[in-house]
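tool=predict chain=A
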Amino acid sequence: MPMARYQPPGGRGAAPRGTLPARQLPPPDPALRQRALAAFVLGVLSLLGLALGLGNLRRGVAVAVLTLLFGLTAIWLGARANRQARRSGTARPRGATGGVVLGSFGVAFSALWLLILAVFWPQLSAYYNCMSGANTVAAQQVCHTQFTNSVGSELSVLQTGH
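tool=predict ok
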């Protein structure tokens, strides 16, 4: 004979005693759902584009700027969809909050990558040029050592200010 499961008084998922049951909000308008979906897709694209576009240094700059714009647009669309749903008294559209979160990550990573490019452009450019001509593991190690030394000297200059 199977054992009975414990259910709280009032049935499954009932509100605790002394509280009012949650009011079910009407679904959001189709335009808000589309805006939320667009925010989510742009948030995903901001992260995916950044992950896929960093292999080439020259292309990386354009990709970082584009993913920064995608992330900012995702944040704007998602926040606007949430705000309009709250004003109209409907449920939050699916994907709006996700779009804001993913867009925020995309903006943060894009801005960080652009900052790194601005500070270390000469070192990164020399490293990519060196690696494109390196045919052996030893040559690649030389490129890596040169890059590490040049970045280390740049960091010491940035720390001391001289």
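The mean pLDDT is 85. The CA atoms of residues 140 and 155 lie 22 Å apart.
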